[in-house]
Write a structure and sequence with these properties.
The protein is an alpha+beta fold. It contains five helices and six strands, in the order ααβαβαβββαβ. The protein has one domain. The longest helix has 18 residues.
């Protein structure tokens, strides 16, 4: 699904293969939160997804627009879908400010990473849903 910030996708053959054995529910928290596709890249400044959920950090676009509320709304929508569908485990996109697990981009838009979870990953974890990235499959 073409939901990446640049209008493209991150097709992963291992995830596609897993879909032949398990039921997968594709979601894009950024789209569910109201962000367009394509969109200006966003990163979490001065923190991680936990800090965003706790009101201590913001999600900003490369152009300086605050999109924090879109990211929080999208995370909440994904949690609602997960609860409705009885999801116990989520496979999310590595390093994303929404979906990153254990590592996210560092907020400098330089491609460097830092420890931490994205907003959606953190919200799912806080609600008892196991998270891993597509790189962990």
């Amino acid at each position: 699904m073409n939901c990446k910030y640049n209008g493209k996708n991150n097709l992963n053959s291992k995830v596609v293969e897993l879909g032949s054995k398990e039921t997968l529910i594709p979601v894009c928290p950024e789209q569910l939160g109201g962000c367009p596709t394509p969109r200006v890249p966003s990163e979490i400044l001065d923190g991680d997804g936990a800090d965003v959920l706790d009101g201590k950090s913001r999600v900003m676009t490369k152009n300086g627009e605050d999109v924090t509320e879109h990211f929080i709304k999208g995370a909440q929508e994904v949690l609602n879908i997960a609860r409705t569908m009885g999801v116990k485990k989520a496979i999310l996109k590595a390093r994303s400010p929404s979906c990153g697990f254990c590592s996210i981009y560092d907020g400098t838009f330089s491609g460097k990473t830092k420890k931490g979870n994205g907003v959606t990953s953190e919200l799912l974890i806080r609600n008892g849903i196991s998270v891993l990235s597509e790189e962990d499959i």
